[in-house]
Every structure is written in C-alpha cells, then in structure tokens.
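Final report, Chapter 2: Outcomes

The project's central promise was a pipeline that accepts a single protein chain and returns its three-dimensional structure in a standardized token representation, suitable for archiving and comparison. That pipeline is now operational. To close this chapter, we reproduce one record exactly as it appears in the project archive, with the input sequence first and the structure output second.
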Amino acid sequence: MRSEAQISTHMPASCSETQRVIDAEAALRAADAAVRHARQLGVRVNVAVVDAAGVLASFVRMPGAPLHSIDIAIDKAYTAASFGLPTGAWTEALASHSEAVRAGLVLRPRFVAFGGGLPIEERGARIGGIGVSGGSESQDEAIASAGLEALGLAP
C-alpha cells in the first residue's frame, strides 16, 4: 500500500484535448456538391458526412436512391473518418495482415471495405469523412471526391 507521500500531487492543467471537426456549413457544402456530381453522372445516391468522431453532420438522400444505401453511405463515412483511409483502399491494406485480422475486421459493425468513403482532412488533421452509396464503387468514389473538391480538400 502506498502512503500519501508517494502519491503524486501533480495535477495536469487539463484532462481534455481539443479536436477539430468539420463544421455544419462545410458538411452541407460537401453533400450538396456530391449530389450535383451524382446528377451529372445520372445516378441516385445517398451522401453522408460525419465529423471526426463519426457523428453524422449532414445527410442527403436523392429521391430514388436505394434504401439500403442509406446505412451504407453513413457507414462508409464512419469507416473513413475512424481509420483515415479511403474505404476502397482496404483490400490492399488488409493484404499485409494475418488471416485473423482480414477475416475479423470486415465483420466489425459499421466497417465498410469497398469504395465510396473518403476521410476529410484539413491541414493535416482528420476532421471527418464522407460516404456515398447508390452507384458503382467508382461512381461513389468520384461523387465523394466531388464533395471534397468543393471544400478545397481534394484527396
């Protein structure tokens, strides 16, 4: 048992840290630009933007977009924000890991390992993620990229 003399009395000035996150206006701009690009491609999609903690910041469902794609778009954004890796990069990223990691990670709830989710980074800090679902993988990726381009944060 430690005596009181052994217990440090040093208290940190703060026990918290400031985390930068995407703001509402930027989240809406990204989603709007993504929808405009989807229209140009002739596809109907769902677009989700999450903050750095994976909390939904904006969401748009184009009329006629697949209903199952609602959760997929949100989960793509969540996966991209949580790992800082485009969702389409996971096949290659997992190749260097053990079979247990490859099999286990893809079974995690909300984890998406196919294209359409991109991290949102500003000045070296991850501030969120954008996810698109409803088109092909390449269309979803291009639409998500259009959202980042509207913010001046192209991948």
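Archive annotation: The chain has a mean pLDDT of 92.
This record, like all others produced under the grant, will remain available to the consortium after the project formally closes.
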